[in-house]
Amino acid sequence: MAEQPWLIVGLGNPGAQYERTRHNIGQLVVDELARRASATFKSHKTNARVAEGRIVPGGPRLVLAKPNTYMNTSGGPVSQLVRFYSVQPDRLIVVHDELDIPFDTIKLKTGGGHGGHNGVRDIASALRTPEFTRVRVGVGRPPGRTDAADHVLSPFTSAQRDALPVLVSDAADAVELVTTDGLLTAQQKYHGRS
Q1: Checking phi first, is residue 15 left (phi over 0); if not, alpha (psi -120 to 50) or beta?
Q2: What CA–CA distance (Å, rounded) separates 21 from 184?
Q3: What mean pLDDT is predicted for residues 180-187?
Q4: Contacts from 44-51 at CB under 8 Å and sequence distance 24+?
Q5: How far is residue 124 from each of residues 6, 24, 87, 188, measured CA to CA in Å?
Q6: For the chain, which domains are there?
Q7: Does the pTM exceed 0.85?
């Protein structure tokens, strides 16, 4: 039997105007994983851009994906990818921004609620299960009375941009750790950080 790959989906919005916004941090993480695997994103019939590879020889096979749809309608492409690659939900990792976690913090979980995240909600609905792993990358709550939607669709502050490469690298490390050592090991490493 062929080795079942891990499907790793980075959430975000299409278009140059969204590339460096908080909402697209999931796509920045899968870009980093593709760089590590020397893999190139290509158009795919599932309405996503897909890159395939291994980060280390003999390591797990990774299918990295960025849906071409807006965040709130990520479920269609993700469910098509799950079917196309015959991946069970326990081998799906969704990387996304998280308002309820401070910037520069990573939390991981499987299942549970969507926490108001419309991309996660749409994926759980399309798959008919919430039982997939989420790598939640903290972008923090908006300051003052700033609307949450405006906050996630705006660029990082200059201080955050300086810290962003390390955060993206850490989130990519967390994804790798899930695929090699399991969720619990990754949680123990990243949840203990302050």
Answers
A1: left
A2: 30
A3: 95
A4: 44/81, 44/84, 45/80, 45/84, 46/77, 46/80, 46/81, 46/84, 47/76, 47/77, 47/80, 48/9, 48/77, 48/78, 48/80, 48/81, 50/81
A5: 17, 19, 15, 25
A6: 6-190 (3.40.50.1470)
A7: yes
pLDDT per position as a tens digit, 155-179: 998 999 999 999 999 999 999 999 9
The two tokens of residue 150 are 């405006």
Query: pLDDT-based confidence at 1, cuts 50/70/90?
Result: very low
Q: What is the mean pLDDT of residues 82-93?
A: 96
- Residue 30's identity, in one-letter code, is V
Phi-psi category of residue 47: left, alpha or beta, with phi > 0 → left and psi -120 to 50 → alpha: left
Q: How many CB atoms lie within 10 A of CB 83?
A: 11
Q: Which of 23, 96, 117, 151 is catalytic?
A: 23
| pLDDT, tens only, 126-146 | 999 999 999 999 999 888 888
Q: Residue 114 catalytic? A: no
Are 141 and 180 within 8 A, CB to CB? no
Average pLDDT (10-33) is 94
Identify the DSSP state of 143: S
* Contact assessment for residue 131 and residue 90, using Cβ atoms and an 8 Å cutoff: yes
- What does the pLDDT read at residue 27? 97
What whole-number distance in Å separates Cα of residue 38 and Cα of residue 53?
Answer: 7
**In the chain, what is the straight-line distance between the N-terminal and C-terminal CA atoms, in Å?**
42
Handedness of CA 125, 169, 181, 38 (dihedral sign): positive
